[in-house]
Write a structure and sequence with these properties.
- This protein is an alpha+beta fold and about 180 residues long.
- The chain is about 30% helix and about 30% strand.
- It is globular.
- Strands 1-2-3-4-5 form a five-stranded antiparallel sheet, with helices on both faces.
- β4 (about 105-120) and β5 (about 125-130) form a beta hairpin.
- The protein has one domain: Peptide Deformylase (Alpha-Beta Complex).
């Protein structure tokens, strides 16, 4: 990533903002604007104490995600125009949260491993196979690129348990739209 790429002041887009429901569009240009967005997304992800962030979560309807499952700089991962090629392994249940659903956590079942084809920020094609927690992070962020949200992965019991918090997010969105 370019150290001198301009910083963008990104904010996390909250449910039920429509950009979160749309399938993201592919990137065509691997340029300084993309590098700047990637750098700013990492800053927002870390500031928000997240381990992954998809472009729709910052209001950008593009096929881009950043992730760091350990918090160590050498584990930063950028996937541009990713395609989830395969999921495999034992299905495991794990409590997931989402920056677009602050304070809401739900048990989500996902396959233990996945293979993804993507480009890096310079436009180089890569194939990755992820396992365990890192695979879960990538699958969660990939869902965002497809317009699939945490609420869609919740069990009926979790939806009921979080009914009030989900309703508050919807009401806050309605109030913000009314003021705009």
């Amino acid at each position: 990533m370019s150290e001198d790429a301009p910083q963008l002041d990104l904010r996390v887009t909250l449910y039920p903002e429509p950009v979160l429901r749309r399938r993201a569009e592919p990137y065509e240009a691997f340029d300084e604007a993309l590098a700047a967005l990637v750098q700013s997304m990492f800053e927002r992800m870390y500031a928000s104490k997240g381990v992954g962030l998809a472009a729709p979560q910052v209001g950008v309807g593009k096929r881009l995600l950043v992730a760091n499952h350990t918090g160590e700089s050498e584990d930063e991962l950028v996937l541009v125009n990713p395609t989830l090629k395969e999921t495999f392994g034992t299905k495991t249940t794990f409590e997931e949260g989402c920056l677009s659903f602050p304070g809401i956590y739900a048990e989500v079942v996902r396959p233990e491993s996945c293979t993804v084809e993507a480009f890096d920020v310079e436009g180089n094609a890569k194939t990755y196979t992820f396992h365990g927690f890192q695979s879960r992070v990538i699958q969660h962020e990939y869902d965002h690129l497809e317009g699939v949200l945490l609420v869609d992965r919740m069990s009926p019991a979790d939806k009921q348990r979080h009914k009030g918090a989900l309703g508050e997010l919807v009401e806050a969105y309605r109030r913000a739209r009314a003021r705009a």
